[in-house]
Amino acid sequence: MSDEEEIILSELNDDELVDQMFDDLYDGLKEEIEEATNILLERGWEPYDILTRALVGGMTVVGADFRDGILFVPEVLLAANAMKGGMAILKPLLAETGAPQIGKMVIGTVKGDIHDIGKNLVGMMMEGAGFEVIDIGINNAVESYMETLEAEQPDILGMSALLTTTMPYMKVVIDHLVTTGKRDDYIVLVGGAPLNEEFGKAIGADAYCRDAAVAVETAKEMMSRKHNQMSA
Amino acid sequence: MTDFTDQQLTEEGLAPAASKGRILLIACGALAREIVDLKKVNGWDHMELQCLPAIYHIHPQKIPDAVRDVVTREKNNFDTIFVVYADCGTGGILKSLCAELGVEMIAGPHCYSFFEGNERFAEVSADEITTFYLTDFLVRQFDAFVWRPMGLDRHPELRDMYFGNYEKLVYQAQKEDQALIDKAKDCAERLGLAFEYRFTGYGDLETSLESVSKSNA
């Protein structure tokens, strides 16, 4: 059965095309997302609008369905991969057009841990939300975090761990920030499958984020609180 | 011989043969064959085995509530209850729960550690962060526990997103079985990883159950 009519993306109007991009992100269709991104650019859309209205909008639906147990990790990965395709086109243009920047984040997986799927997803969604993201990869010791924090002076430090055996290392990093008098310089967000809110509190993080969408919301909220405190 | 299938262990778990007794073991279904074997070899007839569905291995958030249900239901039927789960991805929640319920559990972060021996695993694990482990059960059930849940049957292109940072698959064998070694080699190949065979036997599983057995002999 191949009765389904083929959709020609360039023949859709803007609203239809954005709706179609939501569907294509949901289905993890990278080439279609790249094509649609280019079409919107040709139609004069600002890169920032494509990013927020089409890509982030679509990934928000994916994130919600993941949280509700409708989508699972493989589907989210495919969607993320499709979004990555669109982001690769938009990123250089966003830099050129001076898109609004909410804040800066350094993110990395802790020492002893090589898992980066969640971290990469958070990094991408944070970029989509207007954060500059410095991703320091996997297996990071305290020194690696400290060097990057010193060099980049971010607003937020994000740490990720997938293993019960590696998650305690987050406390090592936070304790180091405390002993060097730098803890209050950064918002510290932590996440990863075996973590929970209680653990986040126990190690002295500012928040535990259960998924990428929560990480973005938490980061935005904390940045706005930080700005309010500074202007008070 | 055992009269249950891996599929039953995966989806349903295993009910104890007797409803009352001295010791109840609440275990992961992935350990059922090993525990049944140990019971038989050591004559631990005073131990009953209740297994939870092995598929909780990939949904560890389900383990604490399931353990709580069994302990609550069975605490008056057995003198001793022992939980044969390590932390198993519960992030310390299972340990807190066991303390709250007043039951003991096997030590260690996961079965890969206690099969190898927790002490030895702690020594070598820092040098093995790029290692993916499989046990006898997981080799037999590779498709059900790794390949399909990760969507690799439908989207093999995701493989390197999951396993790109891994280098080696270590097959921790509990029993010597050439067919399983061959299958484990195939698993490594499918994941694009180097292969290492490591016979562990039952490791700390055996010594832990031995001391539980003696505590209520």
Query: Strand tally of chain A, please?
Result: 5
Write out the strand line-up for the largest beta sheet of chain A, numbering strands in chain order.
2-1-3-4-5
State the helix count of chain B: 11
Beta fraction of chain A: 5-15%
Account of the 3D structure:
Chain A has helices spanning 14-26, 30-42, 47-67, 73-97, 117-128, 142-152, 169-179, 197-202, 212-231, and strands spanning 103-109, 131-135, 156-160, 187-191, 207-208. By secondary structure, chain A is of the alpha/beta class. Chain A has 2 domains: 9-97, Methionine synthase domain (Methyltransferase, Methionine Synthase (B12-binding Domains), Chain A, domain 1); 103-231, 3-Layer(aba) Sandwich (Rossmann fold). In chain A, strands 2-1-3-4-5 form a 5-stranded parallel beta sheet, sandwiched between helices. The longest helix of chain A is centred in the middle third of the chain and has 25 residues, at 73-97. The model of chain A has no long low-confidence stretch (mean pLDDT 93). Chain B has 2 domains: 6-112 and 203-215, Rossmann fold (3-Layer(aba) Sandwich), CATH 3.40.50; 113-199, no CATH class. Chain B has 11 helices and 7 strands. The interface between A and B is medium-sized, with 25 and 25 residues.
